[in-house]
Design goal:
By secondary structure, this protein is of the alpha+beta class. The protein has helices at 3-27, 45-62, 102-110, 112-125, 166-183, 220-228, 230-243, and strands at residues 32-40, 69-77, 83-90, 126-136, 153-161, 190-196, 201-208, 244-254, 260-261.
Length: 269
């Protein structure tokens, strides 16, 4: 068989497997997460954090049940300063129907007058705000159950891809999952896809407990080549590069004093 024919057959096989991966993604969807990214004025950071603290205390006072948690992270490095990410998980869309609006929670907890003051305090500090919904993709993630959220720290890689390369990109991620889990020395990499927001966007969260953990070195090309061979490893890396329209990376730190979690024996991820 000629080199050209081998290449063509390999490409057809890759497309076939990619289609299977897409089908698996659609039928084995993971949890949903609303992520609100808020950048505040430097002069208003303390006011905004006070608003978050009072909001968490109000949820606690009213024994709110849904969502199961509201985790607040702040950008630690690599991103826009004075930026917070507020993460609220849910399993199905019907869950959102039971969510109480923030101002209503504050009003029930503190009364209308105080609630208005708290809301005004928070809103006056905001410079920009963006709300998105992501769905976790455990079938594309590396060791997704290695650490339970909320994570102390997480390195975030956010990639907006060319829509025409969606199947190939998912195929590449599935091969990365296989190779890195077989290698055994790679950290968890939990992947999400955007449902609402800029689509198609993939986000990878690599959680860690201490920055010293990031000193551990790994070699993705080597792991791919060992598992799939040189040609397939090159295809995976080329696909990642070609699909990329915009990429950003940053580190977030969990802020427990600004967050809230439902008091129960079990909580949703």
């Amino acid at each position: 068989m000629t080199r050209a024919r081998v290449t063509a057959v390999g490409a057809l096989l890759s497309l076939a497997v990619a289609a299977a991966v897409v089908a698996q993604t659609q039928t084995q969807a993971g949890s949903l997460f609303q992520i609100t990214t808020v950048t505040v004025k430097a002069s208003g950071a303390l006011d905004y954090e006070e608003y978050l603290k009072k909001s968490a205390a109000a949820r606690e006072k009213l024994a709110i049940q849904t969502p199961s948690r509201v985790s607040v992270y702040s950008v630690r490095m690599g991103g826009t300063g004075y930026t917070y990410q507020i993460v609220s998980p849910f399993e199905k869309w019907a869950d959102v129907d039971s969510w109480m609006p923030p101002q209503e929670i504050l009003t029930k907890a503190y009364g209308e007058l105080e609630a208005t003051k708290i809301v005004k305090l928070g809103r006056s500090a905001v410079e920009s705000q963006r709300s998105e919904v992501f769905r976790s993709q455990p079938q594309l993630s590396t060791n997704p159950n290695a650490m339970t959220p909320p994570f102390p720290f997480a390195s975030i890689a956010r990639v907006e891809i060319d829509p025409a390369m969606g199947q190939a990109y998912q195929m590449a991620l599935s091969k990365i999952k296989t190779a890195t889990e077989k290698a055994g020395n790679f950290p968890p990499a939990i992947r999400f896809t955007a449902v609402h927001g800029t689509t198609p966007t993939y986000m990878t969260a690599t959680p860690f407990r201490k920055f010293a953990e990031r000193d551990t070195t790994t070699n993705l090309p080597e792991a791919l080549e060992k598992e799939f061979g040189e040609a397939e490893a090159r295809w995976v890396l080329d696909t990642l590069a070609k699909a990329n329209r915009h990429r950003e990376s940053y580190v977030i730190a969990y802020r427990p004093e600004l967050s809230w979690m439902r008091k129960s024996s079990t909580t949703n991820p």
